[in-house]
Amino acid sequence: MEGIEAMHSNTKSRLVTLGIVALMASRALYAQDAVPPDAAMKKAVETRQAVLKLIDWAWQPVAGWMRKKAPFDAVAFQKSGARIEFIAPLLPEVFATDTRQAANVKTQAREGIWSHMADFKAKADELVKAGQALSAACKSGDQAATMKAARGVGKACSACHDSYKDKDI
Ligand code: HEC
Which has the closest alpha carbon to 146: 80, 88, 87, 84? Predict the structure, then answer.
């Protein structure tokens, strides 16, 4: 009798353990699939747009020169390149929150970002390299080399925008 009872309680405790493990596993799955709360998604959108505004701010002095709206300024453009190189690595991080299901937020981000994160990251890396090349070219003071490097930055911006950003309305 005693033996049977011991067996019984053993089976019972095994079942309980199994139940707990299953519950934990389903919770883990739920946590993975869960959509972030609206407030978190709104904040994520605001943060990434702020980073892009900052990149744009760093870039504008060079863009103005390319459009012949400002004179060549090696020191300022070197700073632009260095700033872009410094800020661009943040892009994959500030896009880590999947906001595909965000309601009532204005965003130009395309859904493909979260299904092609490796490519998105590669495009951010291209911008890092282009920023580096721009500041290196400015150091030489060579305008032709600077223009070539600046075009490289412009290309890195549009390569990502073409795939992952909605057109401006
Ligand atoms: C790796 C991808 C990527 C790269 C590289 C990139 N962008 Fe963007 N950019 C985006 C996405 C995606 C958005 C839309 C973000 C949103 O609305 O949530 C955006 C939005 C913007 C915006 C609008 C920000 C706002 O006010 O909401 C500006 C300005 C901008 N980018 C400028 C630039 C410039 C300038 C460069 C290059 C120096 C650049 N971007 C490089 C992906 C990129």
Answer: 80
pLDDT tens digits along 89-147: 999 999 999 999 998 899 999 999 999 999 999 999 999 999 999 999 999 999 999 99
Return the closest-CA partner of residue 129 out of 118, 139, 137, 117.
137
Closest atom of ligand 1 to 84 CA is 38
Mutation probe of ligand 1 site: the residue of 52, 117, 123 with most atoms within 8 A of C-beta: 52
pLDDT of residue 149: 98
Q: At 34, which amino acid appears?
A: A
Q: How far apart are CA 117 and CA 96, in angstroms?
A: 9
Which numbered atom of ligand 1 lies nearest the CA of 60?
35
Residue whose Cα lies nearest atom 36 of ligand 1: it is 157
Q: Rounded distance, CA 154 to CA 66, Å?
A: 10
* pLDDT of res. 23: 60
Q: Are 139 and 82 in contact (CB under 8 A)?
A: no
Which residues surround ligand 1 with Cβ inside 6 Å? Answer: 45, 48-49, 52-53, 55-56, 59, 84, 91, 107-109, 120, 123-124, 127, 153, 156-157, 160-161, 164-165
Q: Is the pLDDT of residue 168 over 70?
A: yes
